[in-house]
Amino acid sequence: MACAVAQEQPADPIPTYAIVPAQQQPWLHHWRLSTDLTHAEGRDINSRAGREGDSNSDMARVGLEAGIGRYGFGRIEIGQQRSDNSSSQLFLNDDGDGDATSIGASGGMFILPFLAVGGMVQYSWAHAEDDMTDPGTGTLLAKIDRDDRQVKWAPFVTVAYPIGPVELSATGSYFNIERHSDYSGSGAVVEHDRGSLSAWTAAGNIGWWIVPRLRLGAGVTWIEIADQKPQTGATPLDGSWGNVRGDLLWRTPIDGVDLALHGGHDFDNRQGNGWSAGGGLAFRF
């Protein structure tokens, strides 16, 4: 018999899995509970509108995953994010903050010993506030509240192949995001607004077990925007960009407890050029 076991890069939205031999196991097996805290920062530049700004966010995530049957795998995850952003234009400054909660699930199965297919879906809801001020006098011109609802889904294909202490994997996916914002009651000219984004992604990862308890990982992802319809006042994303990342996983002397650190940075990204760093604990049982 065989089963699918998670080998997750902490910074990736989709874990990497591999089939390993097993004797007897229940239908749900190789459980893993993971926690993660990530801080991210980026820019918000719109040369057409003459706007320059920056944003930062802190996100906490908790996920639970398991092998399913002989060849399947699944994961559920909940996250909480706090974000702040500020931007300046010739006649207007915008200072905003927001809180968002998300819940999602992903899963799939190996159709060959090295090839898996699957998908993910995520729903999130958020509340945000923006203060519009006069850049010359600092006078508050408007205060806008909004409620956001967002749905994200993505099918993916993963190829995974171990070579001794080295783990190689590649993932291709297509994702779509639909967002609806409600400004009613805030005095905004627009009461409802919608936006959407779809893109292709290709990612490659390598993990090297330097010693039995310590793994060094690295990866690169390329994003290609297929279609985007920004919301009113939002800055369109670049048509394509990349992200490079690294991570370190330590299987601590405490049985079943792993410690992970990770970080990443965009490249060839004029609009955002963001970076992120974080870490967390995982418990295998």
Walk me through the structure.
This is Transporter. With 285 residues, the protein is mostly beta strands. It is built from no helices and 14 strands. The protein has strands at residues 2-7, 16-21, 28-46, 51-68, 72-88, 93-112, 115-133, 140-163, 166-182, 192-211, 214-229, 240-251, 257-267, 275-284. The chain has a twelve-stranded antiparallel β-barrel with strand order 3-4-5-6-7-8-9-10-11-12-13-14. It has a two-stranded antiparallel sheet with strand order 1-2. Strand 10 and strand 11 (214-229) form a beta hairpin. The protein starts with a strand and ends with a strand. 21% of the residues are buried. Residues 1-14 have low confidence and may be disordered.
Supply the key terms:
twelve-stranded antiparallel barrel; disordered N terminus; elongated; mainly beta
Question: For the terminal residues, how far apart are their CA atoms?
Answer: 19 Å
Number of strands: 14
What is the H-and-E element order?
A: EEEEEEEEEEEEEE
- The radius of gyration over CA amounts to 21 Å
Major sheet characteristics: 12 strands, antiparallel, barrel
- The largest sheet has its strands arranged as 3-4-5-6-7-8-9-10-11-12-13-14
Structural class: mainly beta
Please give the count of helices: 0
Contiguous uncertain segments of 5+ residues: 1-14
Q: What is the average of the pLDDT values?
A: 87
> Given the C-alpha coordinates, what overall shape results?
elongated
The share of residues in helices is: under 10%
Strand content: over 45%
